[in-house]
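Deliverable D5.2: sample structural annotation.
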Amino acid sequence: MRKKKSVSGFQKKYLRYTIGLLLLALLLSSVGVWFYMRSNMLVIVTNQYAFLNEKMGISLDTLFQKADKVTEECILNDQVQQSLKAKPLEEVEKNSLSKYFAYINLDHVSEYCYVDNKQNLYTRSYSKIPYADFSESGFLTRLGDSYADTVWFVAEDTLFGTGKEALFIGRKVHSLDYAHEPGYLFLKMDSEFLDSIKEGGDSFTGEAAMGVMDGGGNICDSWFPASFSLTESTKRLLADYAVEEKNGVVLQGERVAEGMLFLYKQKQSGFSVFTIIPERVLTKGTGRIMMVLFSIYFLVIAIAVVLSVYFSNKITKPIKVLSRAMTEFDGNDFSHQVHLHTNTELDRIGNSYNKMLINIENLLTEIKDQQKELRTSELNMLINQINPHFLYNTLDTIYMLARINKEETTMKMIQALSKYLRLSLSKGNDIVTVADELENVRSYLQIQEIRNENLFTYTVDCEVEPEKTYVLKLILQPLVENAIKYGFREIYEGGIIAIRIYRDGGDLLLVVYNNGTPIEEDMAEKINALNEKPLSEAKKSFPNQKNGYGVVNVLTRLRLKYGDNVRYRYRAEEDGTTCIIRIPGGGVQNEE
C-alpha cells in the first residue's frame, strides 16, 4: 500500500507543481500588465482631454477677442460717434444707425440695444423698448466702473422681454471728441454662440462632461453625458476657481468625486471652460484589454492542464515499471534486467554499464568542446578590445622621445593631448567636476595655441567651488571649438576667449565669449529657437551635419541629462559673440 501511494503521488505532485507555477506566472503577469496598461491608458486619456479642454479655452479666448474687436468697431463708427453729439440725429440717420447694428459683424447675435447719451434707444424694428424699461433692467450696473471694457454676463432677459437667461455682451460707448456722458451697447447672444466653443470636441460629448461658467461660478452652458451630474463639492470647487484672478490653464487633471477635472479661465471675460473625465472613461480601455487578457489566460490554463495530464502519464508509467524492478532486486541476481521500450532516455537506464559509460564519455566530450569554443570567443573579444592604457603608454613614449630630442612644442602638444584624452574618458563617467572640465578645456586650448600660434589668448574665471561643483563633461570644449573655428576665421592674431562659470540663484551658468566675428543674427535666432523645440525636431534643424550640428549635439546631451528647462543661447555682441548655458539647479554631484 505504501509503495503504491508513494508511486501514485509522483504524478499528483508533478501536476500540482506545474499548474501552480503556471497560475503564479499568469497571476504576476496579469497584475503587471494591469498596472502598466492602467498607468499608460490614464496618461493617454488625460493628455487627450487636457488638449481638448485647452482647445476649448483657446476658442473662448478667440470668441472674446472677436466680440471685443466688433464692439470696438461699433464705437469707432462715424454714425455712432455722431449720435453722441449734442445735436440729435435725423430720422434717416437713426434708421441708418439701426441698420448698421442689425448687420454687425458678429455671429449668433439675436438682439441688440444701443442707447446714446440722449436716452435714445436703437433696437430691431420689431423690438421697440422704452428707456424706462432699459433703465429698470439693471444692465447698466453690470458694466461696473470700467471706462470702456467689454463685459460678458449671464442674466435674465428683462430687456427684450423673453424672461429667459441669456448671455449678454455690453460696453460703454464714449465720444472720441467730447467729454460727454457715454452711450451703452448691449448684444444678446443666442445659445449657439457658446456652442461654437466645443467644435472639434463633439466626438467626446458622449463620454466627457464639458461646460462653460461665468465669473460668478454659475454654469451657463453644459454638455453632459446621460445620467451625469456634478456633486456639491465639485460645484464649490469650480465656483472658487471661477472668482480667482487667473488666466489660461487653471486645473490640469485635478481629482474630483466624478473623475478628473480640467479648467481653463479667460480672464478678460471672467468666463471659464471645464472638462470632467468620468472614472468609467478613465478605466474603460483598461477593462477591455483585461477581458481579452483573461480570456487568453483561461485558454492557456485549460490547454496546459490537458497537456500536463497527458505528458505526466507518459513519463510516470515507465518510471513505475523501473521502480518496481529496482525494489524487487535482492542484491544477488545481477542477471535481472529491465527492458523498456519507450523510445526515450528511460530506455538507457536499463542498458549495460558500458553503454552508460559511452554516454557519459560523449557528454564529457561535448562539454569540453563547448568550453573550448567559449574560451576562443572570450580570447577574440579581449584581442578586439581597445586598451586605453596602451594608448596612454604610447603617448608617454612619444613624449619621452620628444624630450630626448628637446622638441618643446611637441612635448607640450603631447602632454596636452594626453590630459585631454584622460579627462575625456573619465572612467566612463558622464558627470565630472568643474575642475576636471576646466582642465579638459585648458588642454584643448593649449593644443589649439600650438596649432594656431599667436591667434588668441584665453582667460578662465571660475566663481564656484570647482572641486565641489559638478557638470556634464565635454560641454565647454565644443563651445571653444566653435569660437576658434567660426569666430577667428577672419583674423590671424589678437583673438580673446573668456570662459566664466558662476551661479545665478539656483542655476549654474557657463559662459564662453570670443572677440572674433559676431555670429549672424539669423544663425543665432535659429540656434536659440532650438530651446523651444522637441529633441526630434531640433536634430532636424541642421540635417547636413554642418553649421550647428555640434550645437545640436551639445543641446541634446544637456536636455537628456538635465531636462527641457536647460537653456543654450548665442548672443551677438558689438565686438564678438557670447554663448551662455543655463542649467537650472545644476552643479550637484548626483545628476540623474
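Annotation notes: Residues 1-7, 330-334, 377-387 have pLDDT under 50 and may be disordered. The chain has three domains: 1-296, 352-384, 429-584.
The annotation will be released with the project's public dataset once the embargo ends.
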